[in-house]
Amino acid sequence: MTLSATSLSAEALPTVSLTTLKSALLNLICQVAYKEGDFTLSSGQHSDYYINGKQVTLHPQGGLMVGRLMLARLPQETVGVGGLTLGADPLVTAVSIAGAYSHRPITPLIVRKAAKEHGTQANIEGPSLPPNSPVVVLEDVVTTGQSAMQAVERLRAAGYSVTGILALVDRQQGGAQHYAQAGLPFEALFTVADLRARWQALHR
């Protein structure tokens, strides 16, 4: 039996097993974020399906589920998570909050697409960390891998050590290979194959 996100009470979400949580999150993605049709992606590629990750990461229960699951996948030495605005903003926040409740401090870092033109003219928003602090880049949906690499480059330029990339969904369209060529470990909570299989099961 599969679990929907709404079958888990708000009280259960912080403590339910990660296996149960992952199944519920997969259902939620299929219910609110995965669509089939004719779409043009940000990369310019055409696709017969679309995944709007923000429908999950900005969902009250979805954010908490993603935060807990991503926190569990971070290497133990990780002290910060960062990502390119806008897609990564709710991810880094959710992981940081989940870490606070788990007594595991994780600093959230939001990477701007362009430095702001006033004030500090910062490329990165969030508390400053010591040089060479180990940081993992978060992404909602990976296609070619270009978006996360922008975050990697800016975090490195700020003096941080990027130790890997963690995504909600891998569309399996070259992103993983791109990261491998750059020498960056990559992991995703789900692949598009996982989504297609669950979506079909839910719509039988």
From TrEMBL:
Class of the enzyme per the UniProt entry, highest EC level: transferase
Annotated keywords: Glycosyltransferase, Magnesium, Pyrimidine biosynthesis, Transferase
Binding-site residues for 5-phospho-alpha-D-ribose 1-diphosphate, renumbered to this chain: R112, K113, K116, H118, E139, D140, V141, V142, T143, T144, G145, Q146, S147
Keyword Cytoplasm in record: no
Catalytic activity: orotidine 5'-phosphate + diphosphate = orotate + 5-phospho-alpha-D-ribose 1-diphosphate
InterPro entries, sorted: OPRT (IPR023031), Or_phspho_trans_dom (IPR004467), PRTase-like (IPR029057), PRTase_dom (IPR000836)
GO molecular function: magnesium ion binding; orotate phosphoribosyltransferase activity
Gene Ontology biological-process entries: 'de novo' UMP biosynthetic process; pyrimidine nucleobase biosynthetic process
Superkingdom in the source lineage: Bacteria
Residues given in the record as orotate binding sites: T143, R171
Cofactor needs: Mg(2+)
Function as written in the Swiss-Prot or TrEMBL entry: Catalyzes the transfer of a ribosyl phosphate group from 5-phosphoribose 1-diphosphate to orotate, leading to the formation of orotidine monophosphate (OMP).
Family: Belongs to the purine/pyrimidine phosphoribosyltransferase family. PyrE subfamily.
Protein name stated in the entry: Orotate phosphoribosyltransferase
Source organism of this protein record: Vasconcelosia minhoensis LEGE 07310
